Automatic annotation (TrEMBL):
<protein>
    <submittedName>
        <fullName>CENPP protein</fullName>
    </submittedName>
</protein>
<dbReference type="Pfam" id="PF13096">
    <property type="entry name" value="CENP-P"/>
</dbReference>
<dbReference type="GO" id="GO:0034080">
    <property type="term" value="P:CENP-A containing chromatin assembly"/>
</dbReference>
<feature type="coiled-coil region">
    <location>
        <begin position="6"/>
        <end position="33"/>
    </location>
</feature>
<keyword id="KW-0175">Coiled coil</keyword>
<dbReference type="GO" id="GO:0000775">
    <property type="term" value="C:chromosome, centromeric region"/>
</dbReference>
<dbReference type="InterPro" id="IPR027801">
    <property type="entry name" value="CENP-P"/>
</dbReference>
<dbReference type="GO" id="GO:0005634">
    <property type="term" value="C:nucleus"/>
</dbReference>
Length: 190
């Protein structure tokens, strides 16, 4: 067998090993999340769910109403994506720690804003005090496709330091929109 045949098999083996690793991580995440709840909490949730499904069957909307509601939500989502320019392609959430009044979750988010790709990874700490919930972003890591502009690099570094997601999304939206305008203008002059 030639070198190319062996390489194809090695590539396939590596791809399968990566898939196994990802599935193992997903399994561990699910198992870890389920261990945060006691048997008593799980039974309470099951009983609550059964009461809802048995007692509220009269109040449920018909399938056509639910379908119309889903279509309305999809239309709203489509409008927001067109309006803001953000198209999220993937999101994953992993619960790192969960206690009575504190939850730490690790989020991974990727997508595009107009034509600029981005990936975010951050931890979200949610704390509940006296019916008030506060959230803090930490360990923010941003990977962007367009790093040739030094101002963008500085902005990304500053945003990572401060953990300010709202400013990042607002600024990225504006920058990406004008990036598109500049790109079309330069193509026009070529």
């Amino acid at each position: 067998m030639d070198e190319g045949g062996f390489q194809a098999y090695e590539d396939e083996i590596q791809a399968l090993e990566e898939e196994i690793r990802l599935l193992t991580e997903k399994y561990e995440d699910m198992r870890q999340e389920s261990t945060f709840f006691s048997d008593e909490e799980i039974l309470k949730s099951i009983k609550s769910f059964q009461r809802e499904t048995q007692g509220d069957t009269k109040g449920h909307e018909s399938p056509s109403d639910l379908k119309a509601q889903l279509e309305s939500l999809e239309t709203d989502l489509s409008f927001l994506m067109e309006f803001t320019g953000f198209h999220f392609t993937s999101h994953s959430k992993k619960t790192v720690e969960k206690t009575q009044n504190r939850t730490v979750q690790k989020h991974r988010l990727s997508g595009k804003c107009h034509s600029l790709s981005f990936q975010l990874e951050f931890q979200l700490l949610e704390m509940q005090n006296d019916e008030k919930i506060s959230a803090v972003v930490s360990d923010l890591s941003i990977v962007m496709e367009s790093r040739e502009d030094s101002n963008v690099s500085k902005f990304v570094s500053r945003t990572e330091e401060h953990g300010d997601l709202l400013t990042f999304f607002r600024s990225l939206s504006t920058y990406a929109e004008w990036y598109e305008h500049r790109k079309h203008t330069f193509l026009h002059f070529k």
